[in-house]
Amino acid sequence: MRELREHCGVVGVAAEEATFISLEALKSLQHRGQESAGLAFLHRGRILLRKGLGLVEEVINSKSLGSSELSIGHVRYSTTGDSTLAEVQPMVIGGLSLAFNGTITNFREIGSSLGLTQKGIRTDTEVMLELLSRLLREGNSFEEAVARFMEVADGGYAVVLMTSRDDLIAFRDPSGFRPLVMGKVNGGFIFASEDAAIRHVGGSVERDVRPGEVIIVRGGEVKSLLLRKRNPAMCSFEYIYFARPDSTIDGLSVYEARFRLGVELAKSHPARADVVIPVPDSGRIMALGFSSESGIPLVEGLYRNPLVKRTFIAPSQEARLNLLFEKFSVIEKAVKGRSVVLVDDSIVRGNTMRNLVNSIRDAGANAVHIRVGSPMIKYPCYMGIDIPTREELIANRGNEGDIAKELGADSVEYLGVEEMVKAIGRQDLCAACFTGIYPLRKRYKISDLEQVFKRGG
Predict the structure, then answer these.
(1) What is the pLDDT of residues 89-104, one digit of tens each?
(2) Which of 26, 155, 292, 331 could form a disulfide with 104 if both were Cys (CB 3.0 to 4.6 A apart)?
(3) Among 8, 235, 430, 433, which one carries the catalytic annotation?
């Protein structure tokens, strides 16, 4: 079985110099996808593509981009399909190009009903693009096509579309699992997975795209329709790990949410230690909150090599283990002879944490206590995040005491789900990876979902 990967980042621009704005916005979203990158733009009535496997600057040469007033872009970790150039977004059918962040949970069912299995279509992106393309060819308007798609699709998605007729369309799933933000830039409009990307290119942030909303930009005019809405369920991991700390999601600061997670961690799960050490980079703000609440001084005891990608989403176990030895080094002067509380945002497989605990002990620490700013991850995600099979998740191999022994730590404690919700500051969070309760339209058994994503994926 191939694994799911972490979700992606999208951008869409309808403005002067759209291609170059999209390119710069993609760079600011690079943390959301380091496996591949792509850009589509309109040139003389045709949609042209520039994409490849690798980082944005590695695969998209700015000199190869023509000037255009319409462009969409994507950075990716694959959620379905393979890590091949054919799977890289944006994708194009005729005069329609699409890029999206998320996972369509029932894409195989939709593909089968459309007869797409005979065409060799294997990914949710292809199924979405084919369905929308067919609906538009049948004479439906964009809002009618998107409404029909929302009727049949289950899962989480934030989508940007462009057409050879100079249209830019953006929409978000009815539960709002995945983030999408609207702004203005260079006399036109921009959509991006995070508002930080809009500010990065000199744009002004207007608002979040609402769950179930479609926004159509045509001829400099904007049309918005709220098509469908279900119970909201924003991905809790956006606040815990994925989003940039300078982003705001649905009106809530990511930085402030992470700080409060650290404060709650210190209140509910204290540790007797001499120093608080963050696991860089995503654990740093939680560690700051933990230190502020506990009064234990924060010390930078780990150096993270900025050139190494996130091991959480590396494409294989071998690749992850190789990256571990390159990713962190311990600052001996910071830990020697001290009891350490090591604060991280989450533990998935446990490879990184086990290596860190061993390294900190080797550097002379008296004790290592682990505090985690999220609940125990026990279940895969089927809305667009790389959380692997249940068997690979360390939280399924025992209680906190068992995990501490496996990691070589003196103690391990996690936030509870209610503690996490309280700290983040919103009730409408998706916590499926912690609880196994998936807020999807259809009630799925976890075993059935696992089988769906094993087949051909």
Answers:
(1) 999 998 999 999 999 9
(2) 155
(3) 8
